[in-house]
Amino acid sequence: MQTDVIIIGGGLHGCSIALHLAQQGFKPIVLEKNIVGRHASGVNAGGVRQLMRDVAEIPLSIAAMDIWENLDRLLGSHLAETCEFISRVGQVGVAASASELAWCAQRTAEMKALGYDLEEMLDAKGVRRLVPTLSDMCIGGIVSRRDGHANPFRSTQAFRARAEQLGARFYEHTCVTDVAEAGSKWQLDTTRGQMHADIVVNCGGAWAWQIAGMIGEQLPSTHLALTLMVTSRIQRFLDPVVIGIDRKLSLKQTEVGTVVIGGGVLGEPDLDAGTTLTVADRMVESARTVWDFFPILRQATIVRTWAGLEAVTPDILPIIGASSVAKNFWHVFGFSGHGFQLGPIVGSVISEMIADGKSAFSIAAFSPARFSNGAIASGAIHAAQHEQQGATG
Amino acid sequence: MTLPRTCQFAVIGGGPAGLAAATLAAGLGIDTVLLDEQPTPGGQAYRNIEAVSRSSWRLLKILGKHYGQGNALVEGFRQSGVRYEPSSSVWQVTPSGKIGVSQSGQAYLLKADRVLIATGAAERSVPVPGWTLPGVMTAGAVQTVMKAAGIVPDEDTVLAGSGPLVYLIALQLLAASAPLRAILQTQKPTSWFSKIRLLSQVRAGAGDLLDGLKWIRAIKSSGVPVFHASDIRAEGRDRLEAVTFQSRGQRHRVDASALLLHEGVIPNIQLTASLRCAHRWDEAQVAWAPVVDQWGTTSHESIAVAGDGAGTRGAKAAPHSGRLAALETAFRLGLISMKERDRLATGDKQALARQVGLRSLLDHLYSPSEAIRTPADADIVCRCEEVSAGEIRKLIDGQGFVELDQLKSQSRCGMGQCQGRMCGQTIARILAEHRGLSMKDVGYFRLRIPVKPLPLDQLAHLQNAECDPELSASSGDPSQRV
Known about the structure:
The structure holds two protein chains of two kinds.
Chain A: E1 2-8, H1 12-23, E2 29-31, H2 40-43, E3 47-48, H3 58-69, H4 71-75, H5 77-82, E4 91-95, H6 98-113, E5 120-122, H7 124-130, E6 140-144, E7 148-149, H8 152-165, E8 169-171, E9 176-182, E10 185-190, E11 193-202, H9 208-214, E12 223-231, E13 241-244, E14 250-253, E15 259-266, E16 268-270, E17 275-277, H10 280-293, E18 301-311, E19 319-322, E20 329-333, H11 343-356, H12 383-386
Parallel strand pairs in A: 1-2, 1-11, 2-8, 4-13, 11-20
Antiparallel strand pairs in A: 3-7, 4-6, 5-6, 9-10, 10-11, 12-15, 12-18, 13-14, 14-15, 16-17, 19-20
Chain B: E1 6-12, H1 16-27, E2 32-35, H2 49-55, H3 57-63, H4 65-68, H5 70-78, E3 83-85, E4 88-93, E5 98-103, E6 106-117, E7 121-123, E8 136-138, H6 139-149, E9 157-161, H7 164-175, E10 180-185, H8 192-199, H9 206-222, E11 226-228, E12 230-235, E13 242-247, E14 250-255, E15 258-262, E16 265-267, H10 270-274, E17 279-282, E18 287-290, E19 303-305, H11 318-332, H12 338-365, E20 380-382, E21 387-388, H13 389-399, H14 404-411, H15 424-435, H16 439-442, E22 454-455, H17 456-460, H18 469-472
Parallel strand pairs in B: 1-2, 1-6, 2-3, 6-19, 8-15, 9-10, 9-15, 10-11
Antiparallel strand pairs in B: 4-5, 5-6, 7-16, 12-13, 13-14, 17-18, 20-21
Helix pairs in contact in B: 1-5, 1-11, 7-9, 11-12, 13-15
């Protein structure tokens, strides 16, 4: 089998890149070792969030929001609807301490100074206007009103379906076992036989470092099992998505009335088996925060938990860019728990880079080169202050 | 309240397997805790037996001599010195033996060196058309309220299904003078040749077979019409008004307010599946069961399963498999030698083998039929999330889905309060049928904790949880965290 671009990994980013490449006239093939959307893309909290992002991601995030708000243009109206994108309900960071409140003030001032007006500071009254059921413990916060949420599994399926309509091909249950240069092309050994392509895009998520290793490039291998828990259905009480500032929390009420709770609770990843176990001991902290912030949820019952495998980089910024050891090889992974919202725009940027060698957006801050030789390059944005953070959730 | 934090041996389930295992384990000097959801020992088979034996001679007579046989087990357990934790719901077991328990509105973790899962079997779902109408229930649910509360149906009732339990429940209803209007036998007629062949393999259990024949005779002489039935439908607008079915080439209709369905029981695998124990598809029993060795040990060596949870063999077999698991536990804990274990196991092994022979005959005679008929497009399969069979088929065709969890993620089937207990097999069967796969290929939902709904209040105050400070620390700027 032979084509112009092979994308390894059928998560949202792989699907989005395939979609945008197909739009540009390429004939992309997506190889997925399991099924499309099996891991982080299909099981994340579905937050479509600009709020509290690293400033390096803000331009991309704003552009992504434009696409989310016009999904029908990208996907057609039927597929756009299946994403269940709920727009402009806002995401709210809740402050429960003076230091968290001070951080909100400092952050909004910094963002203003940079020319961004997407976040606003909230006082105790303001935060209650958006989230009336908050306990007295919550004294203010920060909001991005344009934010919302979507159904992650269905969104990933919709991007795949659109990519297929445009001519992209998907092979599920197809594992890449080796990648090697063969003349001017890439040769991929897969469980479905040998394949060749001019260009390879590595969207392998938690396994992407293994693909990078096949071409001799050492990239961060850290991966986490980010856990979510969900309650049974309850009467509607919440429109925005609520996140913690220093406390571990992310909480939203879905369209059917269940409440999805997360915020960096770690499960046990099993990369080789391709699965995770969730750990009750570590859910206590999030449950306690919900108990503190939302008295209305104290009697709710948790009916299920799950966790997705997600690649996390040392500086919590994604790896997006050309390989630093090989030509015509791209890496797009390591979104560190906040890649869902960026899916639509990163696909567009990468397809422009592949087609034209340039894009309107700079992705320099996300270059794989900052991890050359397994270390953080000194020039990379924020590298120094994030270095010690490692795997903390 | 002082909660147990650790023990050597934790037994989950207070039915015949769990009671026998815990009793023997305590007798061998093992520090044993028995956790059970019910307020008193007995399990499903001997539910509420102490109170019924003490105070309701009439109910004891209605329920029959097999029920009464539970008394000895419960008495032995009461005298055993086992730490008994009734009204406890277990929502987690980890491979390392950490058990999540809810009791009296509090949740705690109990660490055990070895765990025996004796959570038994659950009734197979029988999703006939109209099964979601009020008035349609499982036959076991009726037995439960009879045992627990002495409540007997007083409306026109139709009992439908296959298996010895159908006869037993019919007799119990007749003894209680319940208005039983018809019995619909759904098992396929078996040839005499294969019956005789199977009977020759039954080395014992002849007494039970005779009991069964006596039950059948008693039902026939009661005058309640008995049909060989198929294509059963529950009919009615807002609740059950009538049951219709096919019998001998004709459509029949019986007016009824209650339809009790039963097509056998299947192992309750919620815990073993959440533990990712290896499972096997049992063609004869048409069910998944955990893979266990002769001592009940699963693919995780500190986790064992005894009783019907490891494959349906009935209440008489359960105590034997429970005791074998207790002996293996004593051996692994270093309390008895291998030789001692094998010597003590002889009687239980022989008794168990006899019951297994009987069960093979029953499996063959009473294989489910209505429960494995895949529902029509309009029928609801997932009751919690109201997903129809047609929606499932549309997803399989339209999206090319090949896995159960894809169907779950896209349609929400299996995501509700019952956590797939009621719809799991039916949805798997629709997928298997549509794709030309076997049930074994299709597998089961990926299950995780909590296997029973857990109040957030209890999780927020979970006792004995181990918090890893490194994992909970949040350092650096809030905009630069996962």
